[in-house]
Write a structure and sequence with these properties.
By secondary structure, the protein is an all-alpha fold. It has 2 domains: about 30 residues; about 45 residues, no CATH class. The protein contains 5 helices and no strands. Helix 2 crosses helix 3. The two termini are about 40 Å apart.
């Protein structure tokens, strides 16, 4: 992304051409060139709440519950995941409704 940004800004390369040449998304590069997104930002969205191992344990629990023919609604799963993350101390208890 950095190389594509430099090519667009310093070498006056077209954003579409720089995106193709450096293998980045055109929209992401265009937003950085136009100044809508800081050029130094490399990740977007929220940070992860659980590690892959913790998430795998949670998924295994949901699969077990499904195997005994009991289901959860989507909001119940979201609430359970938030509570599980709070128990693991990776999420604030205040964020749980």
């Amino acid at each position: 992304m950095t190389n594509a940004f430099r090519a667009s800004k310093e070498q006056q390369m077209l954003v579409c051409r720089a995106a193709i040449q450096f293998g980045v998304q055109t929209t992401s590069l265009r937003q950085r060139v136009r100044g809508r997104v800081d050029a130094e930002v490399m990740s977007s969205g929220l940070s992860l709440v659980m590690s892959q191992e913790e998430e795998a344990m949670f998924v295994n629990h949901l699969r077990f519950i499904d195997s005994v023919r009991y289901g959860y609604a989507r909001m119940e799963v979201v609430t359970m995941a938030s509570e599980y993350a709070a128990c693991l101390h990776t999420r604030d208890n205040q964020n749980i409704k």
